[in-house]
Design a protein that fits this description.
This protein is mainly α and 312 residues long. It has one domain. It has 12 helices and 4 strands; from the N terminus they run αααααααααααββββα. The strands form 2 sheets. A two-stranded antiparallel ribbon has the order 1-4. The protein has a two-stranded antiparallel sheet with strand order 2-3. The longest helix has 48 residues. The chain starts with a helix and ends with a helix.
Length: 312
Amino acid sequence: MAEPVAIAALALDAAIGWPRSLYARIGHPVGLFARIIAWCERYGNRPRWSDRLRRIAGVGTVAMLLIAAICGSLLLEGLVHRWLGSFSWIGIAVLAWPAMAQRSLFEHVLPVARHLRAGHIGEARQAVSLIVGRDTETLDEPAIARAAIESLSESFCDGIAAPLFWLLIGGLPGIWAYKAINTADSLIGHKEERWRAFGWAAARTDDVMNFVPARLAGATLCLAGGGGWRIMLRDAGKHASPNAGWTEAAMAGALGLRLAGPISYDGMAHDKPWIGEGDGRACAHDIHRALRIYLRACAMLWIVAATIQWAA
C-alpha cells in the first residue's frame, strides 16, 4: 500500500480548511504565484508592445511559474524526506493541503443559501459577490441562487477534482504546478484587450491541464446527483470555457435546472446561452440540493484517491 498522501491532504482540508488566523499571519501559498504574475505583467505586458511580444512575455510568465512551482516543490520534498524519514508522507500531505478547497468552497456557498432563505437579498448579493466575477448589485433571488450553484459546480473542478488529479499524477510538484497555472488563468487569462495577448499562454495551459479533470469531475457530479448525463453531454459545449461547461452542465442536469444565461460583467451585458432545462427559477433550496451533491461528489473522490493509493 502506498503512503496515503492524497487522503491525508483531503482530510486536513475537510477538517480545518485554510484557517483565517493562518491566512492573516502568512497569507496563502497562491499569493506567491500572484506576486510573480504581477511582477511579470508589470514588465512584460506593456501597452506599447505588439501582441506578439506580449504573447511571448506571457509564455515566459507561464514558464517562470512552472519552474517556481516544480522546483520549489522538489526542494521542499527533499527537505521533508531528510527531516521526517519514513514519516515524510505526512509532511508532503501538509504541503499539499493548502492546494485543496473543499471546506472553503462549502463555507463560501452556504451563506448565500442562508441569506436567501432568511429573505436577506442584500446580504445574499454580498455573499455571492465573493465567489463570482459577474455584477451582483441588481441580481434577484433566482439569479443569486444560479450564480452560487454555477460557482460551486465550476469550482468543484478547479478547487478539488483537478488538484487531486494532479497530486495523484505528479505528486507535490504536480498539484502546485496546477495551482500556479490556475492562478494565472484567473488573474490574466481573460479576453479583454489588456490581457488577451499576455494571458493567452496562461489560459491555454489551464485549458490543457483541466481537460481530463473537468470531464472526470462532470461524471462524478452526475454519479453523485443520480443523473444529468444527457444534459452534460448535450450542453457542456455551450460554455465559453472548453472545460467549465462539463461540471456546470452536469450540475444543471442533476438538479433539473437551467443555469448560466444572460449576465453582466463590469456593466456590460453578455447574452450567454442557457445550460440545462427548466425555467431557471432557482432558490435557496436548490443551493442546498447542490451542496448535498457536492458533498457526495467529494466523498467519491476520497474513495477514488484511497483506491488508487491502496493499489499503488
